[in-house]
Each structure stands twice: as structure tokens, then as C-alpha cells.
């Protein structure tokens, strides 16, 4: 490393130590650096097994999400089919009732015609 790096590092350490309230950490024997590398946390690198478990978990999460979406879609489709069947049943009931009313009115008209013909026939015979 270049010499200027060590000079910069030393000047930073000295300015840090000059700050008010600075308490010097215990130094190892023969060390000029106030920071003990053993006190620093070790870099964390996940091992292959952990990475594999994370990949598998990610795949499992995706599969579960797909299955949930598929289940929601099927539920929505069933609800739509049930609503359509219910609507068709109501429609057929309404059509059946309308047909009965039309038949009743046709019978009523036929009876009225028959009564009028009978009255006209009785009037023509009486006259």
C-alpha cells in the first residue's frame, strides 16, 4: 500500500483520539492500531446449504401463491356458474308464470266469446 494511505489513516486516528470524550480501547501488546480486529464481527457469507434452502423456500412460496391464485380463480368461476344457474332458474320461473297467465287469459277470452255467441244465438232465436 502507498505510504500516503498510512499517513492518512494515522491522521484520522489521531483526530478521532483528540475528540472530547474519547476513551481509548485497550490495545494489544505491540500494536499501533487502536482497533482490535478480533473485536470486529466476522463477515457473514451464507453457505451452500443455506442458499439451497432459500432457493427451495422461494420456489415453494411461488408454488403456494400459484395454487392460491388457481383456487381463487376456481372459486370465482364456481360462484359465477351458481349465479348463472340461479338467474336461469328465476328466469324459467318467470317464463312459466307468464305462460300460465297467458293461457288463463286465452281461456278467459274463449269463455267470453262462447258466452257472447250463446247470448247472440239466444237473442236471435228469441226474436
Broad structural category: mainly alpha
Helix percentage: over 70%
One letter per element, helices H and strands E, the order comes to HH
Instruction: Give the averaged pLDDT, no decimals.
Output: 80
Q: Total strand count, please?
A: 0
Low-pLDDT segments, ≥5 res: none
Largest sheet: none
Shape: rod-shaped
Counting H and I runs of at least 4 residues, what is the number of helices?
2
Strand portion, in percent? Answer: under 5%
Radius of gyration: 48 Å
Task: Report how far the terminal alpha carbons are from each other.
Answer: 141 Å
Your description of this structure?
By secondary structure, this protein is mainly α. The chain is 74% helix and 0% strand. The protein contains 2 helices and no strands. The model has no long low-confidence stretch (mean pLDDT 80).
Quick synopsis:
By secondary structure, the protein is mainly alpha-helical. 74% of the residues lie in helices and 0% in strands.
Topology record:
Blueprint (H helix, E strand, L loop, with lengths): L2 H15 L30 H79 L1
Q: Which descriptors would you attach to this protein?
A:
single chain; 127 residues; mainly alpha; 2 helices; rod-shaped
Amino acid at each position: 500500500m502507498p505510504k500516503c494511505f498510512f499517513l492518512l489513516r494515522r491522521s484520522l486516528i489521531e483526530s478521532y483520539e483528540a475528540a472530547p470524550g474519547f476513551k481509548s480501547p485497550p490495545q494489544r501488546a505491540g500494536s499501533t492500531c487502536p482497533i482490535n480486529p478480533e473485536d470486529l464481527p466476522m463477515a457473514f457469507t451464507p453457505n451452500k446449504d443455506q442458499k439451497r434452502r432459500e432457493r427451495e423456500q422461494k420456489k415453494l412460496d411461488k408454488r403456494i401463491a400459484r395454487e392460491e391464485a388457481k383456487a381463487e380463480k376456481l372459486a370465482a368461476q364456481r360462484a359465477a356458474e351458481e349465479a348463472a344457474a340461479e338467474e336461469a332458474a328465476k328466469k324459467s320461473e318467470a317464463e312459466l308464470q307468464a305462460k300460465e297467465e297467458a293461457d288463463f287469459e286465452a281461456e278467459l277470452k274463449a269463455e267470453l266469446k262462447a258466452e257472447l255467441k250463446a247470448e247472440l244465438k239466444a237473442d236471435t232465436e228469441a226474436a
